Amino acid sequence: MGLWQRITRVFRAGTGAALDRIENPELVLQQTIRDMRDRVPELNNSVAQVMATERLLIKNHENLEKQVVDLDSKIKASVKMGRDDIATAYIGQLQQAQVDLQRTQAQKEQAELSSKQALKARDNYVLNMKKRTAEAMQLISAAKQAKLQEQLAQTMDTFNIGDDASTFNEMREKIDRRVAAAEAKLQLGSSTVDAQMQDIEREAMDIQLQDKLLEYKQSMGMLGAGSPDTKQIGASKDGDVLDVANETGHSN
To answer: What torsion, rounded to 10 degrees, do the Cα atoms 172, 177, 183, 187 define?
Structure first.
């Protein structure tokens, strides 16, 4: 192998490797999609021009048909009036109109075929563009996933298990100590005098509510004179009086 060929091969290999590193598949696919979409208006314009030519030929064909009919009528009228000279002139025009009509008919048929082919080509292009766009979007999604996996792999390569494990353990111990201290403070706070007084106040409130309920029942005649609830209330009140008296006697 010659020296120049070897240099060329090395240059091409280096250039290809550099392009592979620079080239972003996601950006390339997105640009390809944009290029395909930008071509759709051009195709529509081309199809519109073909269809306009077809419409023009159709109009010319209709005008020539009317001209042939009109010339035929003029020829007949000239013959009836004995004007062979005028009839001869009209016949010449009629022959030319018939030739133009045949030529226009062929052009019209060709234009109709061209319009159908142009429309079909445009529709096929749009269909293919949608298919390619869907494939490109899938490839872009795969490229993003691959990029994420590459970043994750690079992170794992630089991940020091020993140092980070010790850091996690240290932070876990600190958090456990804070949780234990918070639980101890909560337990201590729940056993204070204020908490006990709140319990007593809640109990007193329940007793008052029960007494009020019994008063309502008694006023409504729902409790007899010797009902257990009434006796219990009386006994409770008598017991409270005796307890107060005993406490007074002991204090004296």
So the answer is: 160
